[in-house]
Design a protein that fits this description.
The protein is mainly beta and 514 residues long. The chain has 4 helices and 36 strands. It has a 6-stranded antiparallel sheet with strand order 1-2-6-5-4-36, with no helix packed on it. Strands 3, 31, 32, 33, 34 and 35 form a 6-stranded antiparallel sheet that branches. α3 packs parallel to α4.
Length: 514
C-alpha cells in the first residue's frame, strides 16, 4: 500500500511568461518590442511554460501488456505520452521496493525538468521548472516528492509574480547541481534558484551575493581538484557570452566577457585542468520565432538554424582574459551536451554529443551521436580532427564527476529509441568506455523509457559506484527510480523504487549526499 498526499496545482502567471519570453528589455534591445507587444494584445496567449555487448535479462518493472504508443502530429510531442506534464505536487512516504538498495546510498536523487503548471506550453523547453526527488537512507526509500520551482514566473500562494526578463525571471527548468553546500537549479537564461534538499522547497533566487549580473546557463562544471565552479551565461543582447568562476566556498571571483559574433544559443561547455572550452553553432536568436511563441503557436521557438553563421570551438586559458579566447572554425553542427574534455600532452580532447542540425526544416531535435574532437597545433594555428565514436544514437551524457576535465573512461547516456511514432523518444541507458570503445547497455526494448543517468560514487576508482535514473513504465503508466551497478549495466537494475506517479521526461539531475 502507498500513501500519497496530493496538493493542488498552482496557477501559472501567463503575463509573466509573456514578459520573459517575448517582451521587455531583451526584445527592446533587438528593436522588436513593439511587434511583440502587438502580438500580446492581439489575444494570442501562451501557457507558461561502439557496438554494445550483452543485453539485460533482468525482469521489467511489470509484465503487464503494453498499451499502444500513439502520437498525434497535430499536437506538440511534449504534451503527449510521458513528455506530458503532471499537474499535482505529490508527497509519498510508503514506497514499494524491488531488489536491494545499497545501504551506502544515503542522500537525495534530484532531477529537474520542464513541467508547465498551466498544463500546456509552446515547446518542451519552455515549461515551468519542476524537481523530482527520492530520499534514500539505510537501504530504504524514505520519500518521493515533486515540487515546482517557485520562480517569479510561477503564480503560487506566496504571491510571486513576473518581473523584468532575465535575472530571477526565468523558469529554472533545466538542471539541478550542488556546489559549496547549496542545491541550485538553473534554466537556459537568468539567475539560478536555491532549493532546500530536505523537502525540495524553493529558498529563492541565488545571485552569488549580488555579484552575478548576467545569466547562468544550465551546465556549470566543478573542477574536482580546486573545487571551483566554472560556468557561463549567454544573452540576446551584448554581452552575448560571459564566463564566470566561483571559488570552492561559492564566492564569485571572476566574470569575463568572451567576444562572439552574435546572439547564439550556447547550451553547454567543458573544462580541462587549465582552460575553458566553448562551442558555438549556427543557432541564432530569432525574433519572428519569439513573436510566434508569444502568440502561442505550437513548436514556436526563439532560435533558428542558420548554417551561414558557421560553427567554432573556443579555447580560453584560465589565466587569460576573455578577449584571449581562440576560436577555431569547424563544419556546421550543434552540440547541446558535452561529455568531458581533457589534456593529452599538447593536444586537447573534447567528447561531445554532436547533432547535424537542430530547429531546422529537417526537424526540431535530430538524433545525436558521440564524437571526439581532437585539437592539435600551436596556439593560433590549431586544427580540429572529428571522429565519430559510436553508431548508437544517444545524448544526455553523465560521467564520474570526480574526473571532470581530466582523462576519463566511463560515460553513461540516454539512448534514443527509433521504434516509436514520436519524432523523438527516450530508450535505455548506454555505457561507453572512452578509452577502448567497449560498451554495455540496459535496453528495456520500449517497455520502459529512461532519462539521464547520474553517477554516484561508491569507491575510489573511476566508475566504482552506481548510476540512477527515473524510468517510465509504460504498462502501469508510472515511473520507477532505477539503480544500477555503474559498471554492469547489462545486468539490469539492482533495485527499483516504485513511484505512485509518472515522472515526465526531463533534463538534468544530481545526487545530494546526506
Amino acid at each position: 500500500m502507498r500513501h500519497d498526499q496530493m496538493r493542488n496545482s498552482p496557477e501559472a502567471d501567463r503575463r509573466a511568461v509573456l514578459r520573459l519570453l517575448g517582451g521587455g528589455a531583451v526584445l527592446a534591445a533587438t528593436g522588436a518590442a513593439a511587434e511583440v507587444l502587438a502580438a500580446c494584445s492581439s489575444g494570442g496567449g501562451v501557457a507558461p511554460g561502439g557496438a554494445a555487448s550483452g543485453a539485460t535479462n533482468a525482469a521489467p518493472a511489470t509484465s503487464a501488456p503494453l498499451p499502444p504508443e500513439t502520437y498525434d502530429p497535430s499536437r506538440g510531442y511534449w504534451m503527449q505520452g510521458n513528455f506530458a506534464p503532471v499537474l499535482q505536487e505529490t508527497d509519498a512516504t510508503t514506497l514499494e521496493i524491488t531488489g536491494a538498495i545499497p545501504p551506502a546510498l544515503a542522500g537525495v536523487f534530484v532531477r529537474n525538468g520542464s513541467n508547465p503548471a498551466m498544463g500546456d506550453s509552446t515547446h518542451w523547453f519552455l515549461g515551468d521548472g519542476m524537481v523530482h526527488g527520492v530520499r534514500l537512507e539505510g537501504g530504504k526509500a524514505v520519500w518521493y516528492r515533486n515540487r515546482w520551482v517557485a520562480t517569479s514566473m510561477l503564480k503560487r500562494t506566496n504571491g510571486l509574480t513576473g518581473g523584468p526578463p532575465g535575472q530571477g525571471t526565468n523558469q529554472s527548468n533545466v538542471s539541478a547541481f550542488l556546489h559549496a553546500g547549496k542545491l541550485l537549479t538553473s534554466g537556459e537564461v537568468g539567475f539560478p534558484y536555491r532549493i532546500d534538499p530536505k523537502d525540495l522547497s524553493t529558498v529563492g533566487v541565488y545571485d552569488f551575493d549580488g555579484r552575478l549580473t548576467t545569466s547562468m546557463t544550465a551546465h556549470p562544471k566543478i573542477d574536482p581538484v580546486t573545487g571551483k565552479l566554472h560556468f557561463f551565461g549567454y544573452g540576446f543582447a551584448p554581452p552575448f557570452l560571459t564566463y564566470h568562476v566561483a571559488d570552492a566556498s561559492g564566492r564569485l571571483e571572476r566574470s569575463e566577457t568572451v567576444p562572439v559574433k552574435g546572439a547564439t544559443m550556447i547550451h553547454d561547455f567543458a573544462i580541462t585542468d587549465r582552460e575553458a572550452i566553448f562551442w558555438e553553432g549556427p543557432v541564432l536568436f530569432d525574433i519572428q520565432g519569439a513573436v510566434r511563441m508569444v502568440k502561442g503557436e505550437k513548436g514556436a521557438f526563439p532560435f533558428r538554424w542558420d548554417p551561414s553563421y558557421g560553427s567554432r570551438l573556443g579555447i580560453l586559458p584560465f589565466d587569460q582574459p576573455g578577449s584571449a579566447v581562440e576560436w577555431i572554425e569547424m563544419d556546421p553542427c550543434y552540440v547541446f551536451h558535452g561529455v568531458n574534455a581533457h589534456r593529452d600532452g599538447d593536444r586537447i580532447v573534447v567528447d561531445v554529443c554532436r547533432i547535424p542540425e537542430v530547429f531546422s526544416e529537417k526537424g526540431d531535435l535530430l538524433p545525436s551521436a558521440v564524437h571526439r574532437w581532437t585539437v592539435s597545433g600551436p596556439p593560433g594555428q590549431r586544427r580540429i580532427a572529428d571522429e565519430q565514436r559510436s553508431d548508437v544514437q544517444m545524448d544526455l551524457p553523465g560521467i564520474d564527476r570526480r574526473f571532470a576535465g581530466r582523462p576519463y573512461r566511463h560515460a553513461w547516456f540516454a539512448m534514443i529509441d527509433h521504434d516509436t511514432p514520436f519524432p523523438f523518444m527516450m530508450g535505455g541507458v548506454y555505457r561507453l568506455d572512452a578509452s577502448t570503445g567497449a560498451a554495455d547497455m540496459w535496453d528495456p526494448k520500449g517497455r520502459e523509457r529512461a532519462g539521464e543517468a547520474v553517477f554516484v560514487p561508491g569507491g575510489d576508482g573511476e566508475g566504482e559506484g552506481w548510476v540512477m535514473t527515473y524510468s517510465y513504465d509504460r504498462a502501469r503508466d508510472k515511473s520507477d527510480l532505477v539503480i544500477f551497478d555503474a559498471l554492469a549495466m547489462a545486468k539490469g537494475p539492482i533495485a527499483r523504487v516504485h513511484l505512485p506517479v509518472r515522472v515526465p521526461f526531463g533534463f538534468h539531475g544530481t545526487w545530494v549526499p546526506a
